[in-house]
Structure prediction request, 542 residues.
Amino acid sequence: MKATNVLMAGFGGQGMLLAGKVLAQAAMAKGLQVSWLPSYGPEMRGGTANVIVCISKDPIASPLVSRPDALLAMNLPSLDRFEKSVVPGGTIVVNGTLIARESSRADCRVVRVDTRALAQAAGNERAVNFVMLGAYVGATGVLPAETVEEAIADEFREGKEKHIESNVAAFRVGLEEGRRAAFASEVHA
Amino acid sequence: MSKVLMKGNEALGEAAIRAGCVHFFGYPITPQTEIPEYLCKRLPEVGGVFLQAESEVAAIHMVYGAAGAGVRCMTSSSSPGISLMAEGMSYIAACELPCVVINMMRAGPGLGGILPAQSDYFQATRGHGHGDYQCIVLAPASVQEAVDLMTLAFDLAEKYRNPVMVCADGMIGQMMEPVEFRTEGRGPPMAENDWALTGCEGRPRRIVNSLHLAPEQNFACNVRLKEKYDRAAREEVRFEVYGDERPDLLVVAFGTMARISKSAIDDLRREGRRVGLFRPITLNPWPYARCRAAMDAMPVGAKVLDVEMSMGQMIYDVKLAAEGTRAIEFFGKAGGLVPSPDEVAERIRALLP
Prediction:
């Protein structure tokens, strides 16, 4: 695979750091090199939080990335701040529930997802992070979906098994949305 | 053994346990608190002692006592906390006791901020506390290297009976990477020795003391320490070279900044530029001769760029290595700002012929 760097950003509490960890675990399970670099600072729930996940078959040089291949923006401040940094031809997943405007990047594949509605449909309205992750995996095929699903399940072991089903379900509805968007953009291209 | 995805701080805690560390004394401070947090759970599981002291000053003096009793021990902190430990570290070095101190550097001076920095380079490499002593200083650039260097840190501390500092920055502490613990189970206890205070029944008593009122006696201590540091300079120098062997520009950087520079160098080499990296892994002893050899391999007029997350501290060692034979340029940011690969690449590009 080609090396991929993903920037996942949102409000603290929206679960982007966890979604990033699951992505890193899944890539690791595939024998790839990974790094997971969180923004850390005097932040709290409701503040901004982001994480850069690097995935590569070669050793990762800088875990800090200037131009990510993909951006998962959970809120408007994240889209405003990071949209310009995405490489041309990259992927931008926009949380349509909280972001009213369209992405200004015509040279990127933009996937818009109503995370709240989809998470509710999947039976877990808090699982918006895995809806986003699903949309990203569906749109890019960065990793096999089953590998990511296994990583989600691994995250909810040791007494938290009851959360596995709904979080995997949230990932799957996101996955379908991402695949549909990728297919649509290929048809138009 | 298989790899696990771990946060740098937690991986350092586990690495300490596997190196046979049995006593930890510390005080919480961001961005290293996951180290004591991890050890307070793990150390009792292996029959060790975790103790949260009332301050960093107390913590380092508890390390002093435990080291004097001949147990493998450590502390960890971040920049302002490390400053508080300066006095104790001077005493530990003077008494020739082994211990490991982790500094997960954050921005300064003063209380500064909690974001990553490399601004404690002078403090780490120039003795830190008062008197004529030095610490051996190891600077990891990844979580895996941090784990590997922890084992080395305890080995060197006992080989030289001297404090060893593992100097990383908040980024390495906070990031997660896959790690492999190369040692199964726990390391052996500290070897039998003739200095630890273990109770003198049936043997002559031993004394751990740093007070030498007779100048000749104190000077003998100074000379003994100097001989140790000279020996470490001969035997313990570690470094990495990366990129072109005869580059038109050589970057010198350590820790996180070396890693970020590697990405910049990769980008430039893809453009056909000849760029190399020299990364000291031991910040003290510093690899002067090997850095000089890397400089000497460069074409006439080729420049050296020192890159740091500080206002320029290691640059003085780079200049010592060059001895005036090369122009040494500097690029750095501090205060918790981390230069990006693009910023480093831009600076390199501006200096290339």
User: Anything to note?
Assistant: The mean pLDDT of chain A is 94.
